[in-house]
Specification:
This protein has one helix spanning 3-24, and strands at 35-40, 46-47, 53-60, 63-64, 74-81, 98-100, 107-110, 115-124, 140-144. By secondary structure, the chain is of the alpha+beta class. The radius of gyration is 18 Å and the shape is elongated.
């Protein structure tokens, strides 16, 4: 491929991806330096079956507020279990794979069946929609046995 055509294709693709990302993000702004993480359990942790375990949520450079409370640079936690991140422009689902912590909770207790499981946190605004840019933790894997 000729260099000018390749350069044009790369520029067009980059512009499309930037536009598409901005077009599908939620409308509530998040601080650029917000950092969300799972404090416990650790990635790779092996936990005993039949016993509840605590999951605690960590957040830096952003605040926690209950659902329906709209303050700048705040949101509330959603714990994603065995699923991928939902669409960033829609309300986060509420089901067994998407747990909402709309009272502003920063930890929970879970009991999962034996096997490998993934956990990931996602912040939602006062209406359960991800922020712009979305604030989410890295996905961890745990084993229950």
């Amino acid at each position: 491929m000729h260099k000018p055509i390749r350069t044009l294709l790369i520029a067009a693709t980059t512009a499309f991806l930037l536009f598409a990302e901005g077009a599908v993000a939620g409308s509530t702004a998040a601080p650029a330096n917000a950092y969300l993480y799972i404090g416990w359990p650790n990635d790779g942790e092996v936990l005993p079956a039949g016993r509840p375990f605590k999951v605690w949520f960590g957040l830096r450079d952003m605040g926690v507020a209950p659902k329906d409370v709209s303050f700048p640079n705040t949101g509330h936690h959603h714990l994603l279990i065995d699923t991928d991140l939902p669409s960033p422009d829609q309300e986060i689902p509420s089901d067994r794979n998407h747990l909402h912590f709309g009272a502003g909770e920063t930890e929970t207790t879970l009991e999962l069946p034996p096997g490998r499981h993934t956990l990931q946190l996602l912040m939602g605004d006062d209406k359960h929609v991800p922020h712009n840019p979305p604030v989410y933790s890295r996905k961890i894997t745990i084993t229950v046995r």
